[in-house]
Design a protein that fits this description.
The chain has about 200 residues and is α+β, with helices and mostly antiparallel strands. The protein has three helices and ten strands.
Length: about 200
């Protein structure tokens, strides 16, 4: 019948689209760890954002981020604020000592070297280390709102947001004042890790 033919045609179209989706998806770095941030924007209750971390490609950088999220060394991200948000670019945080972009420290000491630049700043949600020049990584990081290829080779990318896109939208839309500082606090109320039972390659 015509209905059966239409159904078969629809099924074929859906199958073809699925094949195209698989073909266009690019296999990305190996995800070894996941970290969550419960972020409050202004007076809104905290909501969760989850990052997949690329511990095979940049193990030292990932360990730093994980340990700071767990406060393994007695200091870290919980309670700190995003001090710089630029719509159409990125949100920067991780300065848990001074809160203004001048502080922070790594688990290895005040600063540590650039591990490598293998992963590119490809799209919204990528997670990268902030720095003050070569080999000056501490605890500060930024989350991309869009691709930023001009940062490739200058900042170490080590993860990507995999859950919480609505939270990232709210962060990007937060009103800001001087020095791109949010007028209302964008705060990491809580943070920690989520188990990754089996490492897997992320699709980009």
């Amino acid at each position: 019948s015509q209905f059966t033919l239409t159904m078969k045609s629809s099924a074929l179209v859906i199958a073809f689209i699925a094949l195209l989706s698989v073909a266009s998806a690019k296999t990305g770095p190996l995800v070894t760890h996941k970290v969550f941030f419960d972020i409050s924007v202004g007076d809104k209750p905290p909501r969760r954002i989850v990052f997949a971390l690329f511990g095979k490609t940049v193990p030292k950088t990932v360990k730093n981020f994980v340990d700071l999220s767990l406060h393994t060394e007695g200091f870290g991200y919980k309670g700190s604020k995003f001090h710089r948000v630029i719509s159409g670019f990125m949100a920067q945080g991780g300065d848990f000592t001074n809160g203004d972009g001048t502080g922070g420290k790594s688990i290895y000491g005040e600063k540590f070297g650039d591990e490598n630049f293998k992963i590119k700043h490809e799209s919204r949600g990528f997670l990268s280390m902030a720095n003050a020049g070569p080999d000056t990584n501490g605890s500060q990081f930024f989350i991309l709102f869009k691709d930023t290829p001009w940062l490739d080779g200058r900042h170490v990318v080590f993860g990507k947001m995999v859950d919480g896109s609505a939270v990232l939208d709210d962060m990007e839309n937060a009103p800001t004042g001087s020095n791109d500082r949010p007028k209302d606090d964008v705060k990491i109320v809580d943070c920690g890790t989520i188990d990754v039972d089996e490492p897997y390659n992320i699709e980009l």
